[in-house]
Amino acid sequence: MSRKTRRYGTQNDKLQASKALRYEWWMLNECAARILSFGNKDTIMCNALIEAFCVHLRNFIEFFHLKQEKLSDQLFWKHYLSTDEKINLKNDLFPYKKNTNKLLSHLTYERINYTEETKSWPTGQIANEINENMFQFIDAADQSLLCDKIKKYKKQLESVNKAYDDAFTCSSSDDICPNMNYTITKNATGR
After folding, report:
1. pTM: predicted TM-score of the whole model, two decimal places
2. d(CA 67, CA 64)
3. Which of 26, 32, 33, 87 lies 20 to 30 Å from 53 when distance is taken between CA atoms?
4. What 3-state class would DSSP assign to 147?
5. Residue 177: what are its φ and ψ, rounded to 5°?
6. C-alpha distances in Å from residue 115, one per residue of 74, 110, 112, 119
7. Residue 187 half-sphere exposure, CB side, CA atoms within 13 Å?
């Protein structure tokens, strides 16, 4: 078994990785915007969008986490800053780590303890906090480590002053599932 080592990446690695960071940011905002447009008109689509939103949220919770003592090749915001650079991140996101684990990522008994109120995802508030953190991060980061797409996306968001203000509940109980009026068939392999 190989021993894990801490990997912070080369300058080129960080530049290339910032493209993935931009993708995560873009998808989080696109999911938030579409959740607002669907609202509660289509429960299945709203649930799917909330779940997709939470996948990207989980990546940002990890990216902005304050304790970065894991041995991994995981990307953290501090990898892009000089050692003396300080930024004031919003840390209101971290309570959602438990919900992304217990409500969406893992099938746990804890799900039965959630109520409609505790299952609510304030997607708008979360997107706003991620955006504020990203604006601060990009302003403080070594610009040579960031791809042009992430800088351009920041300018686009700032120019439209994009802000969200609604919360939605992801319904995960069978009492709200619609009647399924379609047939599930086996595919050619018999599965």
Report:
1. 0.76
2. 9
3. 87
4. coil
5. -70, 135
6. 33, 11, 8, 6
7. 2
Residue 111 to residue 98: CA distance in whole angstroms: 11
Q: What is the pLDDT of residues 5-23, one digit of tens each?
A: 455 678 999 999 999 999 9
Task: Name the pLDDT band for 185 (thresholds 50, 70, 90).
Answer: very low
Closest CA to 164 of 131, 120, 119, 116: 131
Residue pLDDT, tens place only, 55-65:
999 889 888 87
Of 130, 118, 126, 127, the C-alpha closest to 170 is 118
CB distance 132 to 90 below 8 Å: yes
Q: What tokens does 151 get?
A: 């800088």
Q: Name residues whose C-beta falls within 8 Å of residue 95's C-beta, 6 or more positions apart in sequence.
A: none
User: Tokens at residue 77, please?
Assistant: 């915001």
User: Is residue 96 a contact partner of residue 61, using CB atoms and an 8 Å limit?
Assistant: yes
